[in-house]
Amino acid sequence: MRVYIETYGCALNRADTALMKSLLSASGHEIVQTIDDADVVIINTCTVRKDSEERILKRLSSLRNLNGKRLIVAGCMAAAQPYTILKHVPNAALLSPQHVTEIVSLVESSAPKHLVGGERDVSYLEPYLEDRVATIPIAEGCLGDCAFCIVKIARRRLRSYRPGLIVRAVRKAVDRGALEIDLTAQDTGSYGVDLGGVRLPDLVRRVLAEVDGNYMIRIGMMNPDTVSDVLDDLIEVLRDRRVFKYVHLPLQSGSDKVLRIMKRRYSVDEYREIVRELRGKVEGVTIATDIIVGHPGEDDEDFEMTIEIVKELMFDKVHIAQYTPRPRTEAAAMRQVPEGVKKARSTALALLVEEIGRRQNFEYVGSLAKVLVATRSFRGDALGRTFNYKPVVIKEHNDFRGYGVARIVGATFFDLRGRLEKKLDEA
Ligand code: SF4
Fold first, then answer.
1. Which of 144, 232, 333, 388 stands 20 to 30 A from 339 (CA)?
2. Which of 76, 217, 95 is nearest to 152 (CA)?
């Protein structure tokens, strides 16, 4: 079969696409680049927010008539909203993330089956390489029960991949030329809780000990409540020169009242303490966070608390999301914050985040920074990363990949601009 795959959403979905491609190719099927050339069309969906859902449904509607080609709808929407999909494309086959390893049988089956529910098979893992960056999922699902989140419905309860499987996947990626290894999950902090005895720092140590090579590791998003169990060990691991001094720690709100409504399992004080500990013990560490504005229950005073904590903690990066109700979630049934209020709060927070980002990044101008260039920016320039994962756009060396020293010649609120002064053999 000639198979076309279209992917939406996060690193986990992109890794699932890489897994499907490798299983299909290994079974003799061909991955093609256009729908015209395909016998089977796979849409790997995302439904994390209302706008992502609308985008997918619009795309599916445009694929109602494929002239005999078969349609498979995969990803989070297949798991969380199967009926909604079938209302738009009744003849589609469904493949939820739990069944992604069964893609070959679905492509080879003439009848449109619906493979949803159940638990993910975590005995097979494939690295996803884009340029010289490899994304490696270390777990599927999470331990959370956040009131706003549809992902927990789509990806279900935590299932960690065994350390040996992850080590092999990292080695495979490094053998294929990867220089940056992104260990990703919905919550890397909960890694191994279901395995008994091995946690995130142990895993990273094993990878560093068992995989030789000139690579650097970026540890993906982690929740404050799960990472606090392993914080001391994580700090030690973050100090390894082959690990980016970068922590993505979603706060979501600066108000304890709203955190309780969201069913997040930490307080603002506990969050503050983790950040203080990291900054005190990991020199130059970058802290990125996620903030939801306009969650049900958030009033002006709560939002003011969010503004104050952002000012206080001076995050290096903030992903701002306006709350949107998701089906089958508790928060969707709560009294909603008016759209205009959400928008105004999002704008106010974005202005503050930009101002902080500009102030912090301009401090780098004039300095020399060691960088790892493993990919390119969306404009096609070489994109380097400093030891603390700050993005450095480097002109005139588009094809360079590896380690180097850059003079920082400019900055914006979200990245640095550099001139490559020297190439290095290793980190
Ligand atoms: S931890 Fe919460 S926000 Fe994250 S995936 Fe799980 S339920 Fe969703």
1. 144
2. 76
Residue 67 CA to its chain's centroid (Å)? 35
**Architecture label for domain 254-362:** 2-Layer Sandwich (3.30)
- Mention every residue, 6+ apart, whose C-beta is less than 8 A from residue 280: none
- The rounded Å distance from CA 146 to ligand 1 centre is 6
Is there a shared CATH topology between the 2-115 domain and the 119-244 domain?
no
CB contact set of 143 (below 8 Å; sequence gap of 6+): 157, 158, 187, 190, 193, 226
Residue 353 CA to ligand 1 centre (angstroms): 23
The H or E element that residue 128 is part of is: strand 128-130
Query: Of 247, 184, 193, 150, nearest to 18 (Cα)?
Result: 184
CATH top-level class for 368-424? mainly beta
Pocket test for ligand 1, best of 186, 248, 251 (most atoms within 8 A of CB): 186
CATH of 2-115 given 3.40.50.410, 3.30.1330.40, 3.40.50.12160, 3.10.450.50: 3.40.50.12160
Which element (helix H / strand E) includes 71?
strand 70-75
| Model confidence, pTM | 0.94
Q: Which is nearest to 397 in space by CA: 422, 362, 368?
A: 422
Quickly count: other Cβ atoms within 10 Å of residue 193's Cβ: 18
Pocket residue to mutate for ligand 1, from 13, 48, 187, most atoms within 8 A of Cβ: 187
Query: Does CATH number 3.30.750.210 belong to domain 119-244?
Result: yes
What does each of the 427 residues of the chain score in pLDDT, given as a tens digit? 999 999 999 989 999 998 999 999 999 999 999 999 999 999 999 999 999 999 999 999 999 999 889 999 999 999 999 999 999 999 999 999 999 999 999 999 988 999 999 989 899 898 889 999 999 999 999 999 999 999 999 999 999 999 999 999 999 999 999 999 999 999 999 999 999 989 999 999 999 999 999 999 999 999 999 999 999 999 999 999 999 999 999 999 999 999 999 999 999 999 999 999 999 999 999 999 999 999 999 999 999 999 999 999 999 999 999 999 999 999 999 999 999 999 999 999 999 999 999 999 999 999 999 999 999 998 899 999 999 999 999 988 889 999 999 999 999 999 999 999 999 876 6
Q: How far is CA 142 from CA 185, 242, 376, in A?
A: 8, 27, 31
